[in-house]
Specification:
Layout lengths: L2 E9 L4 H11 L4 E8 L3 E8 L2 H10 L3 E13 L4 H11 L4 E8 L5 E8 L2 H10 L4 E2 L2 H11 L1
Antiparallel strand pairs: 1-3, 1-4, 2-3, 4-6, 4-7, 5-6
Pfam family, one: ACT_8
Protein name: ACT domain protein
Organism: Acidaminobacter hydrogenoformans DSM 2784
Length: about 150
C-alpha cells in the first residue's frame, strides 16, 4: 500500500525548479502532488507522478540527482481534528513520521496526506485496522486526478 515518490535534489538557484518540472512536462509526465523543501545550498523537490520509473529515467538523463522512495498516501477527513485522528493512530503504534505533506481536493470533506514513516508495513497495518483508506495503485492515482482535482 505504498506509492512511489521522487526526491529531486536541486541547486538553490533561480530556474532549477522550473528546469526540473519542464523536463517532466516535456516527457508527458503529470505531477500529482509535490512539496519543495530547502536548505541554504540545495532544495529537495518531492513529487508524486503518474509514471515514476519514466520520470526517474528522464530526470537522470537530464543530469538531475533523484531517488525513489515509498510513501503512504492516506485519505483523511478535511475537518478540525482530521489530521489528529491519523497522527494518534501512528503515535499509538510507535510510528515515527520522517516528513509529511498534504493537499485538499474537491471531494467533500476529504484531504490527502502523504507520509514518509520509519515502519511503513506496521503503519499500513495500523491504519487499515482503523479503516483508514490508503492509496497504492495506478487506479488509485487515476482516482486522485478525477476526484480530487
Amino acid at each position: 500500500m505504498l506509492i512511489q515518490q521522487l526526491s529531486v535534489f536541486l541547486d538553490n538557484s533561480p530556474g532549477r525548479l522550473n528546469a526540473a518540472t519542464k523536463v517532466l512536462s516535456e516527457a508527458g509526465i503529470n505531477m500529482r502532488a509535490l512539496t519543495l523543501a530547502d536548505t541554504s545550498d540545495f532544495g529537495v523537490l518531492r513529487v508524486i507522478v503518474d509514471k515514476p520509473e519514466e520520470a526517474m529515467a528522464i530526470l537522470r538523463k537530464n543530469n538531475f540527482a533523484a531517488k525513489m522512495t515509498e510513501v503512504l498516501v492516506v485519505e483523511m477527513e478535511d475537518t478540525p481534528g482530521g489530521l489528529t485522528t491519523i497522527l494518534d493512530i501512528l503515535e499509538d503504534g510507535g510510528i515515527n513520521i520522517e516528513y509529511m505533506y498534504a493537499f485538499a481536493g474537491t471531494k467533500p470533506r476529504k484531504a490527502l496526506m502523504i507520509f514518509r514513516v520509519n515502519k511503513a508495513d506496521e503503519a499500513i497495518d495500523l491504519l487499515k485496522s482503523k479503516n483508514v483508506r490508503l492509496f497504492s495503485t495506478e487506479e488509485d492515482i487515476d482516482e486522485l486526478i478525477h476526484v480530487y482535482w
